[in-house]
Amino acid sequence: MLNVSMLMTEPHRAQHGQYVARYVATGDAHIIGKGREVEARRANGEVFPVSLSVGEALDGEKRRFVGIVRDLSEQRAAEQSTRALEHRLAHVGRFNLMGEMAAGIAHEINQPLSAIATYAQAGKRVLQRGNPDIALLRDICTKIDDQARRAGQVIDNLRKFIRKQEIETQSLDVNRVVQDVLELIEVDAHSEGIPVHLRAAEALPKVRADAVQLQQVLLNLTRNSVDAMRGGVGKERGIVIATERRANGSVCVTVTDHGHGVAAQLGDNIFHPFVTTKRDGLGVGLAISKTIVQSYGGTLAYSDNPAGGTVFTVELPAEQGPDSAQAQT
Questions:
Q1: Which element (helix H / strand E) includes 21?
Q2: 68, 160, 176, 255: least CB-packed within 10 angstroms?
Q3: Domain CATH number, residue 222
């Protein structure tokens, strides 16, 4: 009699026999009538994923079991290919995002460079004196160093954000993720005279995601907010980024603006690729953001801000298991 366990690798092979024996003895259907995914081994020794379904068939007084095995190799390969394409598209999206933020970034870097030039000229004048003040020169050099570090920090943040890297799903403190990208958000918003307010809830549970991808989502949302508020009457009220824990235990990040809002005729179409109201926009930012959030079991939605504008909400499931201790802020 053939048994599907002969196709399996350990520990699935030993477990399968135990499951069937327990069902015969107790009637407890652990696998009977249910499908599950296991690893199988080909005749050449290659291991591959399969979907296994086991059912019971009565033949008189005899009890027979029928196993149906479906090779999932092509399906898994297609899924991996899709994920790879999504990751590459997200990486391209980060470059596009930096292009949209170029004016603010240039302004943020130009400020310390201008200060360095001013301090250098002052130092030159001090040196031209007959008896230069060493303490003053030391102070000037310290200020030049501070401004150089400020410009370098902006560049370092950009480099970390746009570099191509493997997706690393890990346990994350959402407040820390927001804090790490806040400087880039402020660079973009402050260049348009828009203040940014952060309201972080304490003791949030951790989530499982990739930090850079979540930062990309936040930057996409705040970039849209900056565009919506540019030149608007509600600009002084700024952008509000808030974190909270929902009653169901999930973690939420909301980005609230006071701009012109989302046109009624667009609705949820704003999350579709190439849908945009920007003259020079590609219309992929929100589509990429929604794909990223959904890949971690979360949701991205929007609602109208009663005070005028839009509220975007990212909701992520709390991490489960022993490593899901609450984040301390």
A1: helix 12-26
A2: 68
A3: 3.30.565.10
